[in-house]
Amino acid sequence: MNEKDLLYFCKLVETGNYTITANFFDVTQPTISMAIKRLADKFKDPLILQKNRKSKISLTDAGELLYRKAKILLQDIASINYDVMHASDKKIRLAFSGEAGSLYIADIIQQFYEAGIANLIDSKIERSANAFSDLTNGRVDVAIYSWMVPINDPEYYIHNLQRTELVAITSKTDKWHDVHEVSAADLRNRKFIARKRGYLTRECLEQVANLGDFTPQIAYTATTMKLLIDLVKRNVGIALAMESSLKDVSGIHVIHLKPGQRLWAYMQIAMRKSFIPNKYQQKGINILRHFKPDDYR
C-alpha cells in the first residue's frame, strides 16, 4: 500500500468515475484500475463494486472504512510533508475570519511585536468556514474565527476567546430607534442588509428567520461589514451583527432579540495538534495558545 494508491482510491470514491479520476491525476485509466486492484488484493476485499462500466460505483463495508481512514492518513501525510520541508520557516500562517480579524489582529500583532517576533506573522482574512478548512488541510497553522457553536474537537488545540450576542442594528433615525427588544417574528416585514451565504451573520439571519417563520427580505448583499454598517446608517435596511464588533461604531441603534431566541457567536483560536512548531515558531505559538485581547490583559 502506498500514498499514491490511496490518493487514487479516495478521488475515485469522490468522483465515482475512473475516467474523471485518471484525468484529474493526468494518468491512464488502467493506472487507476491497477491501484484499486493492489488495495483490493492487500485487504482481501473488492472495496469498490460496479456492475458494469456505465453503472455507479458502490463501496463495500471495508471500502467505506478504508476511505474514511485514508482521508485522515493523507491529511496527516500532507501535514508531515509540509512541516518537515518547512522546518526552518520563520513564519506562522494565520487565517482570520473578518469579524475575528477586526477584533483581534491588532492585539496579536502588538503582542508579537512586544516579543520581538512581529516578522513571524503571515496572515490572511477569509470566511470562518474557509479558515477552519485551511487549518484542517494544513494550508495554515492557526485559525482565528467565529462560530455559532463552539468547536470542541480533540484533534485541535482550542483556545476560547469570547462569546458575543448577535443583535439587530438600525440607524438612529429608523422607526425602531427607541426599541430595545424584539421577537424573531417582529423582523418579518423588515428589509435587511446581509453578507453572502457562508458568513456567520448571514447564517444567523437565516436562523432567526426560521424562528420567526419568514424568508428574509434582502435589500442588499454587502461585501464587507463596514459597507453593511454604512448602509444601515443610511436607512437602506437593518442588519444582524455581533455586538462585540460594534463597541466603537457610532450612528447605529442596537436591538436585542427576546430571551430564548437570542443567538451567540463564539470566538476561538484553533491549531492542529499534529502541527509541531519549529524553534523559530515556538514563541509565537505560545503567545497564541495563551492569547488574551488587550481589553482583558
Helices and strands in order, then pairings?
Blueprint: H1 3-15, H2 18-25, H3 29-43, E1 48-49, E2 58-59, H4 61-85, E3 92-96, H5 98-114, E4 121-125, H6 128-136, E5 142-147, E6 156-171, E7 181-182, E8 191-194, H7 200-212, E9 217-221, H8 225-233, E10 239-242, E11 252-257, E12 264-272, H9 282-289
Parallel strand pairs: 3-4, 3-5, 7-11, 8-9
Antiparallel strand pairs: 1-2, 5-12, 6-10, 6-11, 6-12
Helix pairs in contact: 1-2, 1-3, 1-4, 2-3
Descriptive keywords:
single chain, 297 residues, alpha/beta, Arc Repressor Mutant, subunit A, D-Maltodextrin-Binding Protein, domain 2, 3 domains, eight-stranded mixed β-sheet, two-stranded antiparallel ribbon, 9 helices, 22% strand, globular
Total helical elements: 9
**CATH fold annotation of the largest domain:** D-Maltodextrin-Binding Protein, domain 2
Number of domains: 3
N→C terminal distance: 51 Å
The portion of residues assigned to helices is 25-40%
The assigned CATH architecture of the largest domain is: 3-Layer(aba) Sandwich
Number of strands: 12
What's the helix-strand series? HHHEEHEHEHEEEEHEHEEEH
What's the mean pLDDT score?
A: 91
Q: Are there runs of 5+ residues with pLDDT below 50, and where?
A: none
| Strand-residue proportion | 15-25%
- Biggest pleated-sheet summary: 8 strands, mixed
Please state the overall shape, judged from the principal axes of the Cα atoms: globular
Structural class: alpha/beta
Q: Kindly provide the name of the CATH class of the largest domain.
A: Alpha Beta
Assembly type of the shown chains?
single chain
As a whole number of angstroms, the C-alpha radius of gyration is 24 Å
